[in-house]
Design a protein that fits this description.
The complex is a heterotrimer of chains A (313), B (354) and C (403). Chain A contains 11 helices and 4 strands, in the order H-H-H-H-E-E-E-H-H-H-H-E-H-H-H. Chain A is mostly helical. Chain B has a single domain, classed as ABC transporter involved in vitamin B12 uptake, BtuC (Orthogonal Bundle), CATH 1.10.3470. In chain B, a hairpin with a 4-residue loop joins strand 1 and strand 2. Classes of the chains: A mainly alpha (313), B mainly alpha (354), C alpha/beta (403). Chains A and C meet through helix 1, helix 8, helix 9 and helix 10 of A and strand 7, helix 8 and helix 9 of C.
């Protein structure tokens, strides 16, 4: 039973990261109907920016949790700003000219941007793994024991931060004018334009917001217990997060959160599954994401919380 | 009369392919020959993908998965079936570059291609089925997902080496035989182009095009769109499987990392660069995108890995710029009509189909 | 009568590809003499001996390649300063395989196509060696792996050698250490399912540990590309010691996450841990990997060997830091190849291969090397303990007689 609980905790933690990245995918899809393949790489860039910022600020391990959070905060904010900027640049130069182009063209461009980011990162940062300096207390001081279940304080911070960010996002989307504009554009872009919404501004804002979230995800991921950063880390994470977004219903913000959580939980359970006879389900952890995807899509073709817009002739 | 003419033409083509095969593999520099072979395999992949994406308008971005299936299944056949089916093949897997060598390898190669293609086509059928309920982007993700699932399954099948790759049965010293010569690769290139061309310009092909243009209208006109879509997947997957068999038996080793979604993207890039729906475009782009990186790498390889990274960045930039500047690709939807060019008359000015 | 008249447009569209094909064929053809060389210049065959070295200079296991290359180059420098071999200077051409098996194969294919390359050194990782070896075996070029320990590598063919011990021995070393020194009876294994090295070593450890009376309570796999190992770690919480035969890149993260899960048991590993970056991943010195052990080929603290001391001095002078086991093995590999050339009398592939097979009691830095009938070397292993940022020598374990 405690193993079960442990896996749930791991799953929630993993899922929070997936959710943060998935939100970016789903928001961009909502307003542009575009799968931004480069999004996972923004996550990676976030991790690297955070790493170099941490190095520059000479962060070292803090004795208390509060101290650790305080030192991480500037890194987080800086990274979010940089990534938001990156998102805006990508949108302006790679996607805006293709607003009216066929979908496959935009898809290819997205792939091109993704390749560009990954290879530039390899060129600039080198392909060797880098290790984020640990800022939070380690060892005994860093864990919480609840009976037989161990929670690392890092894990808690990660989940809480992710939840906070998602709460902020939900507020922006549901209670601000810009959020209303985003929802309008994702519902019907032409109608929104006719109502006086500045489409370009809204789309740029959406991109920036999604990128900031991905960047935050990158910093949280790298600084809290995962430590190892590689230029290629965005690819696999991005793919799974994207699948999470689709499972939840692409275009739906609560869907992305739900999808991310589901993805994290299922991956955690599969990886932690004991071997049955000679069959080790944990080796198929990577495939789980896609099996989940196919199963969900076959039952609910628009995703769990998605709305299937009927095709008008 | 026509039959004799066709038969003679076929015989001539086969003979010249065989001649070229023996000549080129001994005369060309290793690097160049490698480029030629890899380009041929890429052409088969690109044209077969074009049948799904270009003709039928489906978003299939997991094509490398079909290639993987063909590669692994055919390699397993020739290696594990060595004792029972092909004992006359050398265990080290190297065949002499002569007519005898060719004849020795022929039945094995045909078997490998057939088995690889058929199994891959079966997988293609399974992948095409969700097209019943899914459209556009969703189908794209599912195809990507299938590609990944195939990769994970292969990586966990120890009989084919798992993630460490398959080079043969190391315990018994049987390697994957290198029976994919120039002849076979380019014979299949010719076949796939012919099939694609015949499909494109036939009544059946019109159904595919109609599904691409407007699926609802096609359905309204009585076209069984689901059957058309599934057929496209099966056909495309079959040839991808054949390409996989050829790849496995040329490299004599199969690494699951060669068939990831990055590779699938390569093929999608090829057909978009060449022009979706254009067979000529797929051929040209496949050759270009295979030959250029290989040649650049080998000639600049001396300058170290740094340059390689620059090349990859430049490649990505080129892709983006291409999409911004000429998104319909080089050929758009048209083809070079060689027949028309041949029959040019003095009076009429030349127009190439656009 | 069909008149064939091409318009200018069509003419060019046909001309360009035909011209390209013609150019390609004429330029791409091999020169008439000795069957062609790959593009790019190689040294004049008369004045120097060309040795190829393929290594992971970049990528996931970059320290492996860089350190081995340092050792190889130091040896090359010393050989050349002493006058070369048979009067000729040695040149080592190092190619980066980016820690990827396909790249290793491609790079080695380049070596195979170059008639001036008489021997190849490489690789550290067994998977990459396994991918490259068939190519070199087919081309008839002797390959000397400095540190691949998976037994399958030398089974590829009679041109493939190694100067280190193999995993059937290495696995038993840690099993023995765990039972006798750490007094562990319940151990768990965490293996990288994608690495030949890890899988092979894990299997041996399991076998040997159980033969010595211990029990392996859990044997779990992970994927090195993953970032989260907690699910697997949760399964091995109750072990007295955990054997993790992986590479340094992920071991640090695994250790860190293990400690966070409250696992206090000592962790053990193999020579894949040998890297200056190992501790970094674990959160720094004195953290998650403190007090853990791993088996290795060599320890710079080993004072029993005079050659070893001289090597450590020379290496530290040249590179500014102490050599790792891999650097020592790289050095030894190069030295043994040079020795084989000398004994064989000529810098020719077959002669080198024969001489290598006959290497007996060669005084190498990492011990006396005798190449046995399977082209492996029988050598003792050392167990190192991680204290702070240092790998401290703990003990030496000799191979059983006849092992």
């Amino acid at each position: 039973m405690d193993q079960f609980l442990q896996q749930i905790i791991n799953g929630v933690q993993l899922g929070s990261i997936y959710a943060l990245i998935a939100l970016g995918y789903t928001m961009v899809y909502g307003v542009l109907r575009l799968i931004n393949f480069a999004h996972g790489d923004v996550f990676m860039i976030g991790a690297f920016v955070g790493f170099y910022a941490a190095k520059a600020l000479k962060l070292t391990e803090q004795p208390t949790l509060g101290g650790a959070l305080l030192t991480l905060l500037p890194v987080l904010l800086l990274t979010m700003a940089v990534c938001a900027l990156l998102g805006l640049v990508i949108e302006r130069f790679a996607y805006r000219p293709l607003r009216r182009a066929p979908r496959l063209t935009a898809l290819i461009t997205a792939i091109g941007v993704s390749l560009f980011l990954v290879n530039s990162a390899q060129l600039i940062f080198g392909a060797d793994p880098k290790f984020f300096p640990s800022v939070t207390p380690q060892g005994e001081a860093g864990t919480l024991q609840l009976g037989r279940v161990t929670i690392a304080k890092d894990q808690m911070i990660l989940v809480i931060s992710a939840a906070l960010l998602m709460a902020v996002l939900t507020y922006i989307v549901n209670h601000t004018r810009m959020g209303k504009a985003m929802r309008a554009v994702s519902h019907d872009a032409d109608a929104a334009a006719l109502m006086g919404v500045n489409i370009d501004r809204v789309i740029a804002f959406t991109f920036g917001l999604g990128a900031a979230l991905a960047g935050a995800g990158g910093v949280l991921f790298a600084s809290l217990t995962y430590a190892k950063i590689l230029p290629l880390m965005g690819v696999q994470m991005g793919l799974k997060a994207f699948v999470a977004a689709v499972v939840g219903g692409i275009g739906s913000i609560p869907g992305a959160m739900l999808g991310g959580l589901l993805m994290g939980l299922s991956e955690s359970f599969v990886k932690g599954a004991p071997a049955i006879g000679g069959f080790e389900p944990s080796r198929f952890a990577d495939a789980v994401a896609f099996i989940l995807l196919i199963v969900v899509l076959l039952i609910r073709p628009a995703g769990l919380l998605g709305r299937f817009a009927p095709e008008k002739v | 009369m026509v039959f004799l003419k066709r038969a003679a033409l076929t015989a001539a083509v086969l003979a010249s392919l065989l001649f070229l095969s023996i000549l080129l593999s001994s005369r060309l520099q290793d690097v160049v020959f490698r480029v030629v072979m890899l380009s041929g395999i890429a052409i088969i992949m690109a044209v077969s993908l074009n049948m799904i994406n270009g003709f039928t308008g489906q978003f299939s971005i997991g094509h490398a998965g079909f290639q993987a299936v063909g590669a692994y299944v055919s390699a397993a056949l020739t290696v594990y079936g060595h004792r029972t089916l092909f004992p006359y093949l050398p265990e080290g897997g190297i065949l002499p570059n002569s007519v005898q060598g060719f004849l020795a390898g022929a039945p094995a190669m045909i078997a490998a291609m057939l088995v690889g293609g058929v199994v891959s086509a079966a997988i293609g059928y399974i992948v095409g089925l969700p097209s019943l309920r899914l459209r556009g982007d969703y189908l794209a993700i599912v195809t990507l997902g299938f590609g990944e699932i195939i990769r994970v399954v292969v990586e966990n099948t120890d009989a084919v080496g798992g993630p460490r790759g398959f080079t043969g049965n190391i315990e018994e010293g049987i390697s994957i035989p290198g029976i994919a010569s120039f002849f076979w690769v380019y014979l299949m290139v010719v076949v796939v182009i012919l099939v694609a061309r015949n499909l494109r310009f036939s009544i059946e092909g019109l159904k595919y095009l109609s599904v691409r243009e407007d699926e609802i209208a096609a359905q309204a006109m009585g076209v069984d769109t689901t059957r058309v879509k599934v057929n496209a997947f099966v056909l495309g997957a079959f040839f991808a499987g054949v390409a996989g068999a050829l790849f496995a038996h040329y490299e004599q080793s199969v690494l699951s990392s060669s068939f990831g979604f990055v590779r699938s993207f390569d093929f999608v890039t090829m057909i978009v660069l060449g022009g979706l729906g254009s067979i000529t475009g797929s051929v040209v782009a496949a050759v270009l995108l295979t030959a250029l990186p290989e040649l650049l790498r080998s000639s600049l390889g001396q300058l170290g890995a740094e340059f390689n990274q620059y090349r990859l960045v430049a490649y990505a930039l080129l892709l983006i710029i291409l999409m911004l500047v000429r998104p319909q690709g080089i050929f758009g939807r048209g083809e070079i009509d060689f027949g028309k060019l041949w029959r040019r008359r003095q009076t009429a000015p030349a127009t190439v189909g656009e | 009568m069909v008149q064939v008249r091409l318009s200018r447009n069509a003419f060019f569209r046909l001309l360009a590809p035909s011209l390209a094909a013609a150019c390609l064929l004429s330029v791409g053809c091999k020169p008439a003499d000795n069957g062609g060389a790959a593009g790019g210049g190689s040294a004049a065959a008369g004045g120097e001996i060309l040795i190829g070295h393929f290594a992971s200079m970049s990528g996931d296991t970059s320290t492996f390649g860089v350190e081995t290359d340092n050792g190889v180059r130091l040896a090359m420098k010393e050989i050349n300063e002493a006058g070369g071999i048979l009067g000729k200077k040695v040149r080592v051409d190092t190619q980066d395989d980016q820690s990827k098996p396909e790249e290793a194969k491609t790079v080695v294919t380049g070596f195979a196509a170059d008639p001036n390359v008489v021997a190849v050194i490489g690789e550290v990782a067994s998977t990459r060696s396994l991918n490259a070896a068939p190519v070199l075996q087919r081309a008839g070029i002797p390959m000397v792996s400095p540190s691949s320990t998976n037994p399958a590598v030398t089974k590829v063919g009679d041109y493939i050698f190694r100067v280190c011990f193999i995993d059937p021995f290495q696995g038993s070393v840690m099993a023995k250490f765990a039972r006798e020194d750490l007094k562990v009876s319940r151990a768990a294994i965490l293996r990288d399912q994608q690495s030949d090295y890890s899988v092979g070593l894990a299997d041996v450890f399991k076998r040997e540990f159980e033969k010595l009376g211990g029990t392996v309570i859990k044997d779990v796999s992970y994927n090195a590309k993953d970032h989260d190992f907690r699910s697997q770690l949760a399964q091995v919480k109750d072990a007295e010691a955990i054997f993790i035969p992986g590479y340094y890149g992920e071991v640090g993260t695994i250790a860190r996450q293990a400690r966070e899960l409250g696992i206090k048991a000592p962790l053990m590993g193999g020579d894949g841990w040998d890297s200056e970056k190992l501790i970094e991943g674990a959160g720094g010195a004195g953290k998650a990997l403190e007090g853990c052990y791993f088996s290795n080929h060599y320890s710079k603290d080993d004072k029993s060997n005079e050659r070893s001391q001289k090597f450590v001095e020379a290496y530290t002078k040249e590179y500014g830091k102490a050599p790792s086991g891999l650097a020592a093995l790289g050095y030894d590999a190069m030295m043994i190849v040079a020795d084989a050339i000398k004994r064989g009398g000529a810098a020719e592939r077959d002669k080198i291969k024969e001489a290598l097979a006959q290497t007996k009691d060669y005084p190498a830095v990492t011990g006396d090397i005798t190449i046995d009938a399977n082209r492996n070397a029988t050598k003792p292993a050392v167990v190192l303990e991680i204290q702070g940022a240092e790998f401290v020598y703990k003990k030496t374990i000799q191979p059983e007689a006849g092992a």
